[in-house]
Amino acid sequence: MAGSPASLSGRDVGSFAYLTIKDRIPQILTRAIDTLHRHKSEFFEKHGEKGTEAEKKAISLLSKLRNELQTDKPIIPFVEKFIDTDIWNQYLEYQQSLLNENDGKPRWFYSPWLFVECYMYRRIHEAIIQSPPIDDFDVFKESKEQNFFESQESIVALCTHLQELVTAIKDLDENQLKDEFFRLLQISLWGNKCDLSLSGGETSSQKINIINSLEELKPLILVNDMEHLWSLLNNCKKTREKASLTRVDIVLDNSGFELVTDLVLADFLLSSQLATEIHFYGKTIPWFVSDTTIHDFNWLIEQVKSSNHKWMSKCGVDWGNYIKMGKWVYHDHIFWTLPHEFCVMSQVAPDLYAELQKAHLILFKGDLNYRKLTGDRKWEFTIPFHQALNGFHPAPLCSIRTLKAEIQVGLQPGQAEQYMASEPNWLTSGKYGIFQFDGPL
């Protein structure tokens, strides 16, 4: 891509990309293999000998994958026919075409990090779908559910806060409404810390009441464009005709506690009439350990609904009703689990791009979305966000992420250096967050 810097990759020994490929990814594969082992008797009970054979086959395929990675073998094409197999294999050919003749094949530590990390999760999926009758098994399901159950106290506090807010919402003046909007945006931001791929699949639940921590967390927001989001949605609300819509799209990241924070924000947007419909986008296959699939989305709403806490249960009932009424719409699309950066979406997935163009505002949650928005490249810290998006502008958009990768654009001169001096891992610890907006100001 002319004028764009090089991709982040495992070539840079000691970098976060290098350590992810060297340590975190093998750890995630080991946990996936252990999960299959632990379900051995369940597979046998359900499917008899066929289940046992399938478990052995899936483990053998994942062990082979782990070995390929750890010995930096060439990256091989996909063989199992699936909806995206051809697109993936074309992309592998494209990666090959970028190499010089002397470089050989694309390899784990030398190819772009974004590509090899996505490829690894797609290979996990291939191992499972090559192993019927356990070909619908989600190796990450348990850890996602554990994250939800271990975050119960925080979820109850959040649902209680929302129900109290919704009850009083008609009495709030504009400034109070804006304060509440900012509060729930920040809760959704810090909910993004609960990322299981960052911890190698170890638990990362939310155990403190996040609502009480917002003031002390505020200085950790490096780019804060919340005012732009308020202006845009409040203006839509004021100028909206009776029959017209304001649509907010949320491209989801993690299931569990983070998804609850996103649904609470979405509920508030409807209750406050800042939006009239919300569209959610999740993943078609298990992805990056904790990313939300349609199963996770529906399962979580059912769990909230069946809670014996009255306000939590009320949230679940309301959320189920929003779906029935069409005020909340869930979409998935294979593009979200491809390795492509978003600037090629209009060519690779024109149907998805056209869908996003219908939104008044798109919120992109989390780190992987940010990496794909910016191409996961070695941008200067001060490059404008708009420039790093490289032509991707379906609608006004905002990235809401805690920093867990060595990429950040749109900072003030000197800002990055200030953090680097005191905290060498400021880009990857998840301690800092951003609300980074691109659209008409």
UniProtKB/TrEMBL annotation:
Signal peptide: none
GO biological process, one term: methylation
The keyword Transcription regulation belongs to this UniProt entry's keyword annotation: no
Annotated GO MF terms: metal ion binding; phosphatase activity; protein carboxyl O-methyltransferase activity
Pfam families: ARMT1-like_dom (PF01937)
Annotated catalysed reactions: beta-D-fructose 6-phosphate = dihydroxyacetone + D-glyceraldehyde 3-phosphate; L-glutamyl-[protein] + S-adenosyl-L-methionine = [protein]-L-glutamate 5-O-methyl ester + S-adenosyl-L-homocysteine; beta-D-fructose 1-phosphate + H2O = D-fructose + phosphate
SUPFAM superfamilies named among the record's database cross-references: AF1104-like (SSF111321)
Superkingdom per UniProt: Eukaryota
All residue ranges annotated as the Damage-control phosphatase ARMT1-like metal-binding domain in the record: 20-417
Family matches, as InterPro entries: ARMT-1-like_metal-bd_sf (IPR036075), ARMT1 (IPR039763), ARMT1-like_metal-bd (IPR002791)
EC number, as in UniProt: 2.1.1.-, 3.1.3.-
Keyword Metal-binding attached: yes
Cofactor(s) this protein requires: Mn(2+); Ni(2+)
Cellular-component GO terms for this entry: nucleus
Keywords, sorted A to Z: Hydrolase, Manganese, Metal-binding, Methyltransferase, Nickel, S-adenosyl-L-methionine, Transferase
Domain free text: Subfamily III proteins have a conserved RTxK motif about 40-50 residues from the C-terminus; the threonine may be replaced by serine or cysteine.
Function statement: Metal-dependent phosphatase that shows phosphatase activity against several substrates, including fructose-1-phosphate and fructose-6-phosphate. Its preference for fructose-1-phosphate, a strong glycating agent that causes DNA damage rather than a canonical yeast metabolite, suggests a damage-control function in hexose phosphate metabolism. Has also been shown to have O-methyltransferase activity that methylates glutamate residues of target proteins to form gamma-glutamyl methyl ester residues. Possibly methylates PCNA, suggesting it is involved in the DNA damage response.
Protein family: Belongs to the damage-control phosphatase family. Sugar phosphate phosphatase III subfamily.
Protein name stated in the entry: Sugar phosphate phosphatase
Organism: Nyctereutes procyonoides
